[in-house]
Design a protein that fits this description.
The chain is mostly helical. It is built from four helices and no strands. Helix 1 crosses helix 2, helix 2 packs parallel to helix 4 and helix 3 runs antiparallel to helix 4. The longest helix is centred in the C-terminal third of the chain and has 24 residues.
Length: 89
């Protein structure tokens, strides 16, 4: 499995502040980015896997919604997270 408890806790520790702070917008965006990168690599090898492609599009939409929320709430946190994760605007 590519996403173990330890990896998840590390992502939330780094971006959410604490390993138990799983609800923070930054932590969720970082987790979605990790999953998006994994699915993108999978689709490079398996280009006809349409179910994974649909899942990828849904994840990108969820991440976009969280990023839009973060823009409205706190533009400084938004800029910090996109810079840290290397997300295009």
């Amino acid at each position: 499995m590519y996403l173990t408890k330890e990896v998840k806790a590390e992502i939330f520790q780094k971006h959410g502040g604490e390993a138990v702070n799983t609800g923070s917008a930054e932590g969720q965006i970082a987790l979605f980015t990790y999953r998006i990168n994994h699915l993108t690599e999978h689709l490079k090898k398996n280009r006809k896997d349409f179910n994974t492609e649909r899942s990828l599009v849904k994840l990108v939409g969820k991440r976009r919604s969280l990023l839009d929320y973060l823009i409205k709430k706190d533009i400084i946190r938004y800029r910090a997270i996109i810079k840290e994760l290397g997300i295009r605007k």
